[in-house]
Amino acid sequence: MTGVLKGLLLLSLCLVVWTVPIDRNQDPPQEEKAEENVDTGLYYDRYLREVIEVLETDPHFREKLQNANTDDIKNGRLSKELDLVGHHVRTRLDELKRQEVSRLRMLLRAKLDSTNAQSVQMDHASLLKQFEHLDPHNQNTFEAKDLELLIATATKDLENYDAERHEEFKRYEMLKEHERREYLKSLDQEKREKEEKRIEELKEKHRQHPKVNAPGSVDQLREVWKETDGLDPQEFNPKTFFKLHDTNGDGVLDEQELEALFTKELEKVYDPKNEEDDMMEMEEERLRMREHVMQSVDLNHDRLVSLEEFLKSTEKKEFNNPKEWETLDDTKPVYTEEELLRFETELRDKEVELGRRAEKLRQEQELLKERSKALEAQKREYQQAVMEMSQKQKEQQAVNRQPPSGPNGELQFQQEIQKLAKEDSQVVKVPVDQNGEVQNNLPAEPPQNLPQHTS
User: Fold this and answer.
1) Where are any strands of DSSP class E within 71-209?
2) Beta-ladder partners of 306
3) For 352-381, what is each residue's pLDDT tens digit?
4) Residues 6+ positions from 269 with CB-CB distance below 8 Å
5) CA distances from 444 to 73, 432, 433, 452 (A)
6) Is the dihedral of CA 136, 137, 140, 144 positive or negative?
7) What three-state secondary structure class fits 162?
8) What is the mean pLDDT of residues 298-327?
9) Transmembrane segments in this chain: where (predicted)?
Protein backbone atom coordinates (compact mmCIF):
# COMPACT_ATOMS: atom_id res chain seq x y z
CA MET A 1 0.00 0.00 0.00
CA THR A 2 1.26 3.46 -0.85
CA GLY A 3 -0.22 6.94 -0.65
CA VAL A 4 -3.68 5.47 -1.02
CA LEU A 5 -3.69 4.93 2.73
CA LYS A 6 -3.71 8.65 3.37
CA GLY A 7 -7.11 8.87 1.76
CA LEU A 8 -8.79 5.71 2.96
CA LEU A 9 -9.48 5.50 6.67
CA LEU A 10 -6.36 7.46 7.65
CA LEU A 11 -4.42 4.23 7.94
CA SER A 12 -1.11 5.95 7.45
CA LEU A 13 -1.43 7.21 11.03
CA CYS A 14 0.99 5.78 13.53
CA LEU A 15 -1.08 4.42 16.37
CA VAL A 16 1.68 2.46 18.04
CA VAL A 17 2.96 3.64 21.40
CA TRP A 18 6.69 3.21 20.86
CA THR A 19 8.41 5.03 18.00
CA VAL A 20 12.09 5.16 17.11
CA PRO A 21 14.35 7.95 15.89
CA ILE A 22 15.07 8.27 12.18
CA ASP A 23 18.56 7.12 11.23
CA ARG A 24 19.68 8.86 8.06
CA ASN A 25 22.73 6.62 7.79
CA GLN A 26 20.60 3.61 6.96
CA ASP A 27 18.76 2.90 3.77
CA PRO A 28 15.05 3.66 4.01
CA PRO A 29 13.04 0.50 4.59
CA GLN A 30 10.92 -0.90 1.84
CA GLU A 31 7.39 0.45 1.89
CA GLU A 32 5.69 -2.90 2.27
CA LYS A 33 7.89 -3.90 5.22
CA ALA A 34 7.44 -0.58 6.98
CA GLU A 35 3.67 -0.75 6.88
CA GLU A 36 3.58 -4.27 8.26
CA ASN A 37 4.61 -2.82 11.62
CA VAL A 38 1.89 -0.13 11.69
CA ASP A 39 -1.04 -1.33 13.71
CA THR A 40 -4.22 0.71 13.98
CA GLY A 41 -5.11 -0.96 17.26
CA LEU A 42 -8.60 -1.76 15.95
CA TYR A 43 -10.07 -5.18 16.60
CA TYR A 44 -10.96 -5.42 12.90
CA ASP A 45 -7.51 -4.24 11.77
CA ARG A 46 -6.76 -7.28 9.60
CA TYR A 47 -10.11 -7.12 7.82
CA LEU A 48 -9.60 -3.40 7.21
CA ARG A 49 -6.16 -3.89 5.68
CA GLU A 50 -7.21 -6.79 3.47
CA VAL A 51 -10.16 -4.79 2.09
CA ILE A 52 -7.81 -1.91 1.22
CA GLU A 53 -5.31 -4.22 -0.44
CA VAL A 54 -8.00 -5.79 -2.60
CA LEU A 55 -9.49 -2.41 -3.58
CA GLU A 56 -6.05 -1.14 -4.59
CA THR A 57 -5.77 -3.91 -7.18
CA ASP A 58 -8.59 -2.29 -9.19
CA PRO A 59 -7.18 0.53 -11.40
CA HIS A 60 -10.47 2.47 -11.55
CA PHE A 61 -11.01 2.50 -7.78
CA ARG A 62 -7.37 3.28 -7.14
CA GLU A 63 -7.55 6.33 -9.40
CA LYS A 64 -10.76 7.56 -7.74
CA LEU A 65 -9.22 7.06 -4.32
CA GLN A 66 -6.09 9.02 -5.16
CA ASN A 67 -8.17 11.96 -6.43
CA ALA A 68 -10.67 11.89 -3.55
CA ASN A 69 -10.49 14.33 -0.67
CA THR A 70 -11.20 13.64 2.98
CA ASP A 71 -14.83 14.76 2.72
CA ASP A 72 -15.47 12.38 -0.20
CA ILE A 73 -14.21 9.51 1.93
CA LYS A 74 -16.03 10.43 5.14
CA ASN A 75 -19.44 11.22 3.59
CA GLY A 76 -19.61 7.93 1.69
CA ARG A 77 -19.41 9.24 -1.89
CA LEU A 78 -16.36 7.07 -2.51
CA SER A 79 -18.33 3.96 -1.53
CA LYS A 80 -20.54 4.32 -4.59
CA GLU A 81 -17.52 3.67 -6.79
CA LEU A 82 -17.54 0.09 -5.55
CA ASP A 83 -20.16 -0.82 -8.14
CA LEU A 84 -17.61 -0.14 -10.91
CA VAL A 85 -14.81 -2.40 -9.75
CA GLY A 86 -13.96 -5.67 -11.51
CA HIS A 87 -15.77 -8.93 -10.88
CA HIS A 88 -12.69 -10.62 -9.41
CA VAL A 89 -12.35 -7.76 -6.92
CA ARG A 90 -15.97 -8.09 -5.80
CA THR A 91 -15.57 -11.85 -5.48
CA ARG A 92 -12.54 -11.44 -3.26
CA LEU A 93 -14.32 -8.80 -1.14
CA ASP A 94 -17.28 -11.15 -0.70
CA GLU A 95 -14.90 -13.84 0.53
CA LEU A 96 -13.25 -11.44 2.98
CA LYS A 97 -16.61 -10.44 4.40
CA ARG A 98 -17.71 -14.03 4.89
CA GLN A 99 -14.45 -14.75 6.69
CA GLU A 100 -14.94 -11.71 8.93
CA VAL A 101 -18.53 -12.72 9.75
CA SER A 102 -17.30 -16.20 10.61
CA ARG A 103 -14.62 -14.74 12.87
CA LEU A 104 -17.16 -12.52 14.63
CA ARG A 105 -19.45 -15.49 15.16
CA MET A 106 -16.62 -17.36 16.84
CA LEU A 107 -15.96 -14.34 19.07
CA LEU A 108 -19.62 -14.17 20.02
CA ARG A 109 -19.75 -17.89 20.75
CA ALA A 110 -16.64 -17.65 22.93
CA LYS A 111 -18.06 -14.65 24.77
CA LEU A 112 -21.37 -16.39 25.46
CA ASP A 113 -19.62 -19.59 26.54
CA SER A 114 -17.42 -17.63 28.94
CA THR A 115 -20.50 -16.14 30.59
CA ASN A 116 -22.28 -19.51 30.73
CA ALA A 117 -25.09 -18.06 28.64
CA GLN A 118 -27.60 -20.33 27.00
CA SER A 119 -26.79 -19.89 23.32
CA VAL A 120 -28.24 -22.97 21.70
CA GLN A 121 -30.72 -20.92 19.68
CA MET A 122 -28.31 -18.04 19.05
CA ASP A 123 -29.55 -15.34 16.66
CA HIS A 124 -26.33 -14.39 14.87
CA ALA A 125 -27.98 -11.63 12.84
CA SER A 126 -29.08 -9.83 15.98
CA LEU A 127 -25.80 -10.34 17.80
CA LEU A 128 -23.77 -9.11 14.83
CA LYS A 129 -25.48 -5.73 15.08
CA GLN A 130 -23.12 -4.79 17.88
CA PHE A 131 -20.30 -4.67 15.31
CA GLU A 132 -20.52 -1.43 13.36
CA HIS A 133 -17.89 -2.01 10.66
CA LEU A 134 -20.07 -4.21 8.44
CA ASP A 135 -23.70 -4.71 7.42
CA PRO A 136 -25.04 -7.55 9.63
CA HIS A 137 -28.17 -8.08 7.53
CA ASN A 138 -26.17 -9.18 4.50
CA GLN A 139 -23.59 -11.70 5.63
CA ASN A 140 -22.50 -13.07 2.26
CA THR A 141 -21.63 -10.20 -0.09
CA PHE A 142 -19.56 -7.03 0.26
CA GLU A 143 -21.65 -4.06 -0.85
CA ALA A 144 -21.25 -0.27 -0.93
CA LYS A 145 -22.86 -0.06 2.50
CA ASP A 146 -20.14 -2.29 3.93
CA LEU A 147 -17.43 0.03 2.65
CA GLU A 148 -19.32 3.06 3.97
CA LEU A 149 -19.72 1.47 7.42
CA LEU A 150 -16.09 0.40 7.46
CA ILE A 151 -14.89 3.93 6.66
CA ALA A 152 -17.21 5.61 9.17
CA THR A 153 -16.40 3.20 12.00
CA ALA A 154 -12.64 3.29 11.47
CA THR A 155 -12.64 7.10 11.28
CA LYS A 156 -14.62 7.36 14.53
CA ASP A 157 -12.48 4.81 16.33
CA LEU A 158 -9.24 6.44 15.25
CA GLU A 159 -10.46 9.84 16.39
CA ASN A 160 -11.16 8.40 19.85
CA TYR A 161 -7.78 6.68 20.05
CA ASP A 162 -5.87 9.64 21.51
CA ALA A 163 -8.50 10.14 24.21
CA GLU A 164 -8.18 6.47 25.16
CA ARG A 165 -4.39 6.80 25.37
CA HIS A 166 -4.72 9.80 27.69
CA GLU A 167 -7.17 7.91 29.89
CA GLU A 168 -4.88 4.90 30.02
CA PHE A 169 -1.98 7.13 31.05
CA LYS A 170 -4.11 8.74 33.77
CA ARG A 171 -4.92 5.35 35.27
CA TYR A 172 -1.24 4.45 35.09
CA GLU A 173 -0.28 7.60 37.03
CA MET A 174 -2.99 7.03 39.64
CA LEU A 175 -1.88 3.44 40.16
CA LYS A 176 1.71 4.58 40.58
CA GLU A 177 0.69 7.18 43.18
CA HIS A 178 -1.53 4.67 44.97
CA GLU A 179 1.31 2.17 45.23
CA ARG A 180 3.65 4.91 46.46
CA ARG A 181 1.26 5.90 49.24
CA GLU A 182 0.62 2.32 50.27
CA TYR A 183 4.34 1.64 50.44
CA LEU A 184 4.93 4.69 52.62
CA LYS A 185 2.17 3.56 54.97
CA SER A 186 3.97 0.27 55.51
CA LEU A 187 7.11 2.03 56.83
CA ASP A 188 7.81 3.39 60.25
CA GLN A 189 8.19 7.14 60.67
CA GLU A 190 11.97 7.26 60.29
CA LYS A 191 12.06 5.11 57.16
CA ARG A 192 9.05 6.93 55.71
CA GLU A 193 10.72 10.33 56.07
CA LYS A 194 13.88 8.96 54.49
CA GLU A 195 11.94 7.51 51.55
CA GLU A 196 9.96 10.70 51.00
CA LYS A 197 13.20 12.66 50.90
CA ARG A 198 14.65 10.25 48.34
CA ILE A 199 11.57 10.57 46.13
CA GLU A 200 11.72 14.36 46.19
CA GLU A 201 15.40 14.26 45.24
CA LEU A 202 14.60 12.07 42.26
CA LYS A 203 11.84 14.44 41.16
CA GLU A 204 14.16 17.42 41.41
CA LYS A 205 16.86 15.59 39.48
CA HIS A 206 14.32 14.84 36.73
CA ARG A 207 13.43 18.52 36.46
CA GLN A 208 17.05 19.47 35.80
CA HIS A 209 17.22 19.17 32.02
CA PRO A 210 18.07 21.41 29.04
CA LYS A 211 15.45 23.70 27.60
CA VAL A 212 12.81 21.88 25.56
CA ASN A 213 11.90 23.65 22.34
CA ALA A 214 8.23 24.01 21.50
CA PRO A 215 7.31 21.23 19.04
CA GLY A 216 6.82 22.53 15.51
CA SER A 217 8.74 25.75 16.17
CA VAL A 218 11.65 26.95 14.06
CA ASP A 219 14.11 26.19 16.91
CA GLN A 220 12.83 22.65 17.26
CA LEU A 221 12.91 21.95 13.50
CA ARG A 222 16.35 23.50 13.11
CA GLU A 223 17.66 21.24 15.85
CA VAL A 224 16.35 18.20 13.96
CA TRP A 225 17.83 19.65 10.75
CA LYS A 226 21.23 19.86 12.46
CA GLU A 227 21.31 16.82 14.78
CA THR A 228 19.35 14.29 12.73
CA ASP A 229 19.83 15.46 9.15
CA GLY A 230 23.40 16.68 9.64
CA LEU A 231 22.78 19.98 7.86
CA ASP A 232 23.74 23.57 8.61
CA PRO A 233 20.97 25.16 10.75
CA GLN A 234 21.61 28.51 9.04
CA GLU A 235 20.53 26.93 5.73
CA PHE A 236 17.25 25.61 7.09
CA ASN A 237 14.64 25.27 4.34
CA PRO A 238 11.05 24.24 5.31
CA LYS A 239 10.26 22.67 1.95
CA THR A 240 13.44 20.59 1.94
CA PHE A 241 12.83 19.66 5.57
CA PHE A 242 9.32 18.42 4.72
CA LYS A 243 10.57 16.22 1.89
CA LEU A 244 13.38 14.81 4.03
CA HIS A 245 10.94 13.67 6.71
CA ASP A 246 8.19 12.44 4.39
CA THR A 247 9.87 9.05 4.72
CA ASN A 248 7.36 7.07 2.65
CA GLY A 249 7.10 9.75 -0.05
CA ASP A 250 3.30 10.00 -0.01
CA GLY A 251 3.29 13.80 0.04
CA VAL A 252 2.10 14.19 3.66
CA LEU A 253 3.50 13.91 7.16
CA ASP A 254 1.47 11.37 9.06
CA GLU A 255 1.45 11.01 12.83
CA GLN A 256 4.29 8.50 12.85
CA GLU A 257 6.54 10.83 10.88
CA LEU A 258 5.60 13.78 13.08
CA GLU A 259 6.24 11.97 16.34
CA ALA A 260 9.68 10.92 15.11
CA LEU A 261 10.59 14.62 14.91
CA PHE A 262 10.23 15.01 18.69
CA THR A 263 12.77 12.36 19.68
CA LYS A 264 15.63 14.82 20.21
CA GLU A 265 13.50 16.99 22.49
CA LEU A 266 12.32 14.00 24.50
CA GLU A 267 15.87 12.76 24.98
CA LYS A 268 16.61 15.99 26.85
CA VAL A 269 14.12 15.00 29.54
CA TYR A 270 13.98 11.21 29.55
CA ASP A 271 16.73 8.61 29.73
CA PRO A 272 15.78 4.94 30.22
CA LYS A 273 18.93 4.45 32.29
CA ASN A 274 17.82 6.96 34.93
CA GLU A 275 15.66 5.83 37.82
CA GLU A 276 13.88 9.19 37.93
CA ASP A 277 12.76 9.07 34.29
CA ASP A 278 9.55 7.20 33.43
CA MET A 279 9.28 5.98 29.84
CA MET A 280 5.49 5.88 30.01
CA GLU A 281 5.57 9.58 30.77
CA MET A 282 7.89 10.09 27.81
CA GLU A 283 5.32 8.58 25.44
CA GLU A 284 2.58 10.74 26.93
CA GLU A 285 4.85 13.73 26.32
CA ARG A 286 5.31 12.63 22.72
CA LEU A 287 1.55 12.42 22.26
CA ARG A 288 1.08 15.90 23.73
CA MET A 289 3.69 17.30 21.32
CA ARG A 290 2.03 15.74 18.32
CA GLU A 291 -1.40 17.01 19.34
CA HIS A 292 0.06 20.50 19.79
CA VAL A 293 1.45 20.49 16.24
CA MET A 294 -1.70 19.04 14.72
CA GLN A 295 -3.87 21.66 16.40
CA SER A 296 -1.97 24.51 14.76
CA VAL A 297 -0.91 22.91 11.45
CA ASP A 298 -3.63 20.43 10.42
CA LEU A 299 -6.08 22.92 8.93
CA ASN A 300 -8.56 20.43 7.42
CA HIS A 301 -8.42 18.10 10.47
CA ASP A 302 -7.63 14.97 8.47
CA ARG A 303 -4.85 14.03 10.91
CA LEU A 304 -2.29 14.51 8.15
CA VAL A 305 0.01 17.45 7.36
CA SER A 306 0.31 18.35 3.69
CA LEU A 307 3.18 20.40 2.28
CA GLU A 308 0.86 23.38 1.86
CA GLU A 309 -0.26 23.18 5.48
CA PHE A 310 3.31 22.81 6.67
CA LEU A 311 4.55 25.85 4.72
CA LYS A 312 1.64 27.96 5.99
CA SER A 313 2.52 27.05 9.57
CA THR A 314 6.04 28.46 9.08
CA GLU A 315 4.51 31.84 8.28
CA LYS A 316 2.76 32.13 11.65
CA LYS A 317 4.09 34.25 14.47
CA GLU A 318 4.14 31.25 16.81
CA PHE A 319 6.60 29.50 14.49
CA ASN A 320 9.39 32.02 15.10
CA ASN A 321 8.36 33.19 18.59
CA PRO A 322 6.75 30.24 20.34
CA LYS A 323 5.78 30.04 23.98
CA GLU A 324 8.07 28.03 26.20
CA TRP A 325 7.07 24.38 26.15
CA GLU A 326 5.78 23.04 29.45
CA THR A 327 6.55 19.40 30.11
CA LEU A 328 4.40 17.12 32.23
CA ASP A 329 6.36 18.21 35.29
CA ASP A 330 5.42 21.84 34.67
CA THR A 331 1.72 21.23 34.17
CA LYS A 332 -0.90 20.28 36.72
CA PRO A 333 -1.38 16.56 37.48
CA VAL A 334 -3.37 14.60 34.96
CA TYR A 335 -5.79 13.56 37.71
CA THR A 336 -7.49 15.26 40.64
CA GLU A 337 -7.50 14.05 44.23
CA GLU A 338 -11.18 13.14 43.85
CA GLU A 339 -10.38 11.00 40.82
CA LEU A 340 -7.60 9.30 42.75
CA LEU A 341 -9.96 8.52 45.64
CA ARG A 342 -12.52 7.02 43.23
CA PHE A 343 -9.77 5.01 41.60
CA GLU A 344 -8.59 3.67 44.96
CA THR A 345 -12.16 2.77 45.87
CA GLU A 346 -12.45 0.91 42.60
CA LEU A 347 -9.21 -0.92 43.34
CA ARG A 348 -10.43 -1.94 46.79
CA ASP A 349 -13.71 -3.20 45.35
CA LYS A 350 -11.79 -5.26 42.81
CA GLU A 351 -9.52 -6.60 45.54
CA VAL A 352 -12.57 -7.63 47.58
CA GLU A 353 -14.08 -9.34 44.55
CA LEU A 354 -10.83 -11.11 43.76
CA GLY A 355 -10.55 -12.14 47.41
CA ARG A 356 -14.07 -13.53 47.31
CA ARG A 357 -13.30 -15.50 44.17
CA ALA A 358 -10.02 -16.73 45.66
CA GLU A 359 -11.85 -17.91 48.79
CA LYS A 360 -14.44 -19.69 46.69
CA LEU A 361 -11.71 -21.42 44.72
CA ARG A 362 -9.95 -22.36 47.96
CA GLN A 363 -13.15 -23.90 49.32
CA GLU A 364 -13.69 -25.81 46.09
CA GLN A 365 -10.12 -27.03 46.26
CA GLU A 366 -10.61 -28.22 49.86
CA LEU A 367 -13.82 -29.99 48.84
CA LEU A 368 -12.00 -31.73 46.01
CA LYS A 369 -9.27 -32.81 48.41
CA GLU A 370 -11.86 -34.27 50.80
CA ARG A 371 -13.57 -36.12 47.98
CA SER A 372 -10.20 -37.41 46.83
CA LYS A 373 -9.46 -38.69 50.34
CA ALA A 374 -12.88 -40.35 50.52
CA LEU A 375 -12.33 -42.07 47.18
CA GLU A 376 -8.90 -43.23 48.28
CA ALA A 377 -10.40 -44.68 51.47
CA GLN A 378 -13.09 -46.47 49.46
CA LYS A 379 -10.40 -47.85 47.18
CA ARG A 380 -8.46 -49.25 50.14
CA GLU A 381 -11.64 -50.79 51.61
CA TYR A 382 -12.40 -52.43 48.28
CA GLN A 383 -8.88 -53.84 48.00
CA GLN A 384 -9.10 -55.18 51.55
CA ALA A 385 -12.46 -56.80 50.79
CA VAL A 386 -11.03 -58.46 47.68
CA MET A 387 -8.09 -59.82 49.67
CA GLU A 388 -10.41 -61.21 52.38
CA MET A 389 -12.65 -62.86 49.80
CA SER A 390 -9.65 -64.45 48.12
CA GLN A 391 -8.39 -65.78 51.46
CA LYS A 392 -11.80 -67.25 52.32
CA GLN A 393 -11.96 -68.90 48.92
CA LYS A 394 -8.59 -70.57 49.47
CA GLU A 395 -9.66 -71.78 52.92
CA GLN A 396 -12.90 -73.22 51.52
CA GLN A 397 -11.01 -75.04 48.78
CA ALA A 398 -8.72 -76.60 51.37
CA VAL A 399 -11.72 -77.83 53.40
CA ASN A 400 -13.38 -79.39 50.34
CA ARG A 401 -10.05 -81.01 49.28
CA GLN A 402 -10.36 -79.33 46.02
CA PRO A 403 -7.24 -78.77 44.05
CA PRO A 404 -6.12 -75.23 44.45
CA SER A 405 -6.48 -72.85 41.62
CA GLY A 406 -3.59 -70.95 40.00
CA PRO A 407 -3.22 -67.20 39.60
CA ASN A 408 -5.24 -67.28 36.37
CA GLY A 409 -7.94 -69.58 37.72
CA GLU A 410 -6.54 -72.83 36.26
CA LEU A 411 -6.53 -75.96 38.44
CA GLN A 412 -3.24 -77.15 39.87
CA PHE A 413 -2.97 -80.98 39.77
CA GLN A 414 0.77 -81.42 39.97
CA GLN A 415 1.08 -81.96 43.72
CA GLU A 416 -1.86 -84.44 43.84
CA ILE A 417 -0.46 -86.40 40.93
CA GLN A 418 2.91 -86.73 42.60
CA LYS A 419 1.22 -87.89 45.83
CA LEU A 420 -0.85 -90.55 44.07
CA ALA A 421 2.17 -91.78 42.16
CA LYS A 422 4.07 -92.28 45.38
CA GLU A 423 1.20 -94.27 46.92
CA ASP A 424 0.93 -96.46 43.83
CA SER A 425 4.58 -97.43 44.04
CA GLN A 426 4.01 -98.97 47.48
CA VAL A 427 1.10 -101.28 46.44
CA VAL A 428 1.82 -105.02 45.39
CA LYS A 429 0.44 -105.64 41.96
CA VAL A 430 -1.45 -109.04 41.49
CA PRO A 431 -1.59 -110.27 37.89
CA VAL A 432 -4.88 -111.54 36.50
CA ASP A 433 -5.69 -113.50 33.36
CA GLN A 434 -8.03 -112.67 30.53
CA ASN A 435 -11.00 -113.92 32.55
CA GLY A 436 -10.15 -111.76 35.51
CA GLU A 437 -8.85 -114.63 37.58
CA VAL A 438 -5.75 -114.28 39.61
CA GLN A 439 -2.79 -115.85 37.92
CA ASN A 440 -0.39 -117.91 39.98
CA ASN A 441 2.97 -117.34 38.54
CA LEU A 442 4.70 -119.58 41.11
CA PRO A 443 6.50 -122.61 39.53
CA ALA A 444 4.64 -125.98 39.95
CA GLU A 445 6.15 -128.75 42.11
CA PRO A 446 7.48 -131.72 40.13
CA PRO A 447 5.30 -134.91 40.32
CA GLN A 448 6.20 -137.33 43.07
CA ASN A 449 5.51 -140.77 41.64
CA LEU A 450 6.59 -140.54 38.04
CA PRO A 451 7.90 -143.85 36.74
CA GLN A 452 11.56 -144.20 36.35
CA HIS A 453 12.88 -144.64 32.90
CA THR A 454 15.25 -147.56 32.52
CA SER A 455 17.74 -148.11 29.97
Assistant:
1) none
2) 252
3) 999 999 999 999 999 999 999 999 999 999
4) 206, 209, 212, 277, 282, 285, 327
5) 142, 18, 17, 20
6) negative
7) helix
8) 89
9) none
